[in-house]
């Protein structure tokens, strides 16, 4: 009943129901809070009478009476929203005390000093929390008394001292509020209730709800609960504990307590608390009861609990329980352990681990035990951690990187011109740009740590240093820093790191996920290293092997340029002939690593100008050469290239001469690639390695584009088979990445053995957004203003792009039953998008190797949720 009673209240009731010792109390519902606002911040009619009536029941149960000078009932007043929320009103303890009842408390406790201490705490809390008097004003009075008595600690003050402090507090109260401290407990109570309701709409709470997308109409409940005292002597204590270690997940009680203390003394740090294990020695019987209670609570909630308790004269009271917050590591271990303990099912265990948590665990990360000197915070753009020397320039990063130095590239922001520096750096730090800025996207793609939008950094490229604003910290080029891309932290100096690996609980959970999921998971990999990692991380094939990266390698780019610069077919074929053996080598390696698993190889996709130097830079070089009377032959060569660059210039390269359009204009390019694939295939087949190549034609929008390119590929396969005398299997399919392909999928399926959704381009072409422009310029505003729910390049747009996918799946499979369909856009590694792919019936998702485990887990979660399974408490 969390929505009616608030989180705290509902759990208190539930603990009472299962027979745990909870001090009795009453709860004013969230409904009353909402009505309070309907009545313009007045108590709804009848509420006060109901509270008084229930208070009567409480008095009967406890045998005490509210405001009775003989046997007073004292209570705490605690706020309690549905979702625990910082910003809500702090708890007021000892409510019901006044000049009369304090005497009775002293008598019954046989301790005047204790009673007066409770009273002064109450005036302080009530004055601060309910009336808004600044806490330091109370502190000032207390300090004065301590100085006067030359007492270093509170406990050295006598009853007489407390009396003086109380007099001072009351005077302060009067000065600040213009009224005397309320002596009537009923008045105290309703003033406190009023303050709780009001705190629902204080600035802090409103901001917190906005950030966390919590509805303003939930309201808060008010818990009024009989006081129990942990400060009545040395057989009393108060403490907080987790039922398991929240940082490692280890199944051991983890917490702290203080003997002879009240409420928040433990967290306030007034005295150093003792570890919970000590309680075993000090109060063995109570400890046993507490340990049993924790086991019972875990059984009941089927989750790790975060509890508060108080021991009054050797008797245990439970004051709070809730699902405990935990680290990624702990979430994993606790979920796996609970499954093995039989506490939860595998399905439930799978849902307990957030895919985002895996992201955290699969990158090199900072040793959780390390002490860090955090100097700035930015956005946690790409998880993982790295240490290195600060450099401010991509060329320099590359130079140092090639010399084997570890560097962190620090820029205000990065552009595609910085790629070589990003490749060489251990991590990226930028002062501008969001989670989808160039630096963030590129770093995530490479699995490199990145902190971006770190606005407190003032970067000075000229001085080669950055300052941390509002501090005197200056970091110069060459200084060592570390970044934590999962926490968004910038740390001074080097930090101890631990390597990512799939082992232990993570391995167990992923194996369970593999058994549950029905959709396949492949990886996008363009080279042997990524292919090996893909297998290690559990990929069941390669869903996208891009061939352009192979063309970019330093030893190949001159040949590629030669091919582009060729004026005749003969010249071009000569250049391609040089590329053939290298390409064949590439495919040989990858196919061999991926033996027995399918490998989708996409033929050349980007426009040719991407392989040529930048036109403007070239023009500058030529001008310089001319001005300095440079070598005429070199000038002429550069001018020829520049002419070619200009002739290849496009107004909109994304929609220009690329993909199969290029393959149709220059069929010899695709023919060479097909030959390389098939020769590698024949070679491996001969060696007894089973390989499954899938040749993919990019950017098809019309069936005829596929038809014409496919003929060449099939002919090449037949030719290679004849030449080598080796028979092998292969398939030919297409990317579905422009809307027209999706809409004419029935036709296209006739010529395709498989479809693969290229959702990066499909999102660009469906929205008519160019990604770089959209993410750089307006997309964040769209998301902020809720024009779009998410960045569609991150979370697949189900309504638009998803609809096209559905059409393509239906039409494609109608035309060709059993047509294999996958996705290879970045969405293939994002949990929400994976769920959609599962729901529309794709055969597999494919994503970067680092995200393969995330996709495996997300795929299993999608299957479990589709079965109608509702988790008992999946959200931690
Ligand atoms: P928070 O949400 O900030 O933890 P709580 O309402 O849980 O606030 O209470 C603050 C402290 O007061 C806790 O240590 C809690 O155990 C203690 N406390 C609350 N109510 C009582 C009570 N009825 N008797 C004794 N201690 C209490
Ligand atoms: Mg609490
Ligand atoms: Mg594409």
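^ structure tokens above, recovered residues below v
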């Amino acid at each position: 009943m969390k929505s009616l009673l608030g989180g705290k209240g509902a759990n208190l009731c539930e603990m009472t129901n299962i027979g745990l010792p909870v001090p009795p109390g009453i709860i004013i519902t969230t409904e009353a809070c909402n009505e309070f606002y309907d009545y313009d911040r007045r108590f709804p009619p009848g509420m006060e009478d109901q509270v008084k009536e229930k208070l009567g029941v409480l008095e009967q149960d406890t045998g005490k009476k509210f405001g009775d000078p003989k046997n007073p009932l004292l209570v705490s007043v605690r706020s309690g929203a549905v979702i625990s929320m910082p910003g809500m009103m702090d708890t007021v303890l000892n409510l019901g005390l006044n000049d009369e009842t304090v005497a009775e408390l002293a008598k019954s406790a046989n301790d005047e000093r204790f009673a007066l201490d409770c009273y002064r705490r109450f005036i302080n809390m009530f004055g601060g929390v309910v009336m808004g008097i600044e806490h330091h004003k109370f502190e000032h009075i207390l300090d004065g008394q301590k100085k006067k008595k030359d007492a270093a600690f509170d406990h050295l003050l006598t009853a007489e001292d407390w009396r003086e402090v109380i007099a001072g507090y009351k005077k302060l109260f009067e000065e600040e509020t213009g009224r005397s401290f309320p002596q009537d407990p009923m008045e105290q109570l309703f003033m406190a209730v009023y303050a709780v309701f009001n705190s629902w709409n204080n600035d802090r709470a409103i901001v917190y709800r906005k950030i966390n997308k919590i509805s303003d109409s939930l309201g808060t409940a008010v818990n009024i609960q009989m006081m129990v005292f942990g400060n009545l002597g040395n057989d009393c204590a108060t403490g907080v504990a987790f039922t398991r270690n929240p940082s490692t997940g280890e199944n051991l009680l983890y917490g702290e307590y203080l003997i002879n203390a009240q409420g928040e003394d433990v967290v306030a740090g007034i005295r150093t608390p003792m570890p919970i294990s000590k309680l075993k020695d000090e109060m063995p019987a109570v400890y046993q009861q507490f340990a049993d209670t924790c086991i019972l609570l875990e059984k009941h909630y089927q989750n790790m609990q975060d509890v508060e308790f108080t021991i009054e004269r050797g008797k245990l009271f439970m004051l709070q329980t809730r699902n405990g917050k935990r680290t990624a590591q702990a979430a994993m271990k606790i979920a796996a352990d609970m499954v093995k303990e039989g506490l939860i099912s595998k399905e439930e265990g799978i849902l307990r681990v957030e895919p985002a948590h895996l992201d955290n665990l699969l990158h090199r990360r900072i040793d959780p035990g390390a002490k860090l000197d955090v100097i700035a915070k930015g956005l946690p753009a790409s998880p993982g951690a790295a240490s290195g020397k600060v450099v401010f320039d991509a060329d320099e990063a590359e130079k140092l990187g090639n010399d084997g130095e570890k560097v962190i590239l620090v820029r205000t922001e990065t552009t595609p011109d910085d790629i070589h520096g990003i490749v060489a750096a251990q991590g990226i730090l930028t002062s501008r740009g969001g989670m989808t800025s160039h630096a963030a996207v590129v770093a995530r793609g490479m699995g490199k740590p990145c902190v971006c939008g770190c606005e407190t950094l003032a970067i000075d490229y000229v001085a080669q240093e950055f300052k941390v604003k509002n501090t005197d910290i200056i970091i110069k080029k060459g200084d060592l820093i570390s970044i934590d891309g999962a926490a968004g932290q910038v740390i001074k100096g080097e930090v101890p790191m631990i390597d990512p690996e799939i082992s232990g609980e993570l391995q167990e959970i992923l194996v369970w996920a593999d058994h549950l999921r029905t959709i396949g998971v492949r990886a996008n990999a363009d080279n042997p290293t990524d292919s090996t990692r893909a297998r290690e991380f559990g990929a069941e094939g390669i869903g996208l092997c891009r061939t352009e990266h192979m063309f970019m390698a330093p030893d190949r780019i001159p040949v590629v340029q030669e091919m582009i610069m060729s004026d005749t077919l003969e010249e071009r074929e000569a250049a391609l002939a040089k590329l053939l053996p290298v390409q064949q080598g590439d495919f040989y390696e990858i196919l061999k690593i991926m033996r027995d698993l399918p490998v989708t190889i996409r033929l050349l996709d980007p426009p040719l100008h991407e392989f040529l130097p930048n036109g403007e830079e070239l023009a500058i070089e030529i001008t310089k050469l001319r001005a300095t009377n440079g070598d005429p032959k070199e000038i002429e060569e550069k001018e020829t290239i520049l002419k070619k660059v200009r002739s290849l210039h496009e107004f909109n390269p994304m929609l220009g001469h690329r993909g199969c359009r290029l393959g149709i204009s220059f069929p010899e390019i695709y023919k060479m690639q097909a030959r390389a694939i098939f020769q590698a295939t024949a070679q491996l087949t001969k060696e007894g390695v089973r390989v499954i190549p899938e040749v993919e034609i990019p950017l098809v929008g019309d069936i005829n584009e596929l038809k014409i390119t496919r003929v060449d590929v099939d002919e090449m396969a037949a030719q290679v088979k004849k030449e080598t005398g080796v028979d092998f299997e292969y398939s030919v399919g297409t990317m579905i990445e422009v809307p027209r392909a999706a809409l004419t999928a029935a036709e296209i399926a006739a010529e395709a053995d498989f479809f693969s959704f290229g959702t990066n381009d499909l999102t660009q072409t469906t929205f008519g957004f160019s990604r770089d422009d959209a993410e750089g310029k307006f997309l964040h505003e769209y998301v902020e203003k809720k024009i779009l729910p998410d960045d569609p390049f991150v979370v697949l747009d189900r309504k638009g792009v998803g609809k096209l996918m559905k059409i393509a799946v239906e039409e494609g499979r109608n035309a060709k039953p059993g047509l294999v369909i996958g996705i290879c856009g970045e969405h293939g590694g994002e949990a929400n998008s994976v769920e959609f792919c599962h729901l529309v019936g794709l055969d597999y998702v494919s994503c970067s190797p680092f995200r393969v485990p995330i996709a495996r887990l997300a795929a299993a979660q999608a299957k479990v949720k589709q079965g109608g399974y509702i988790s008992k408490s999946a959200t931690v």
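The longest helix spans residues 569-593.
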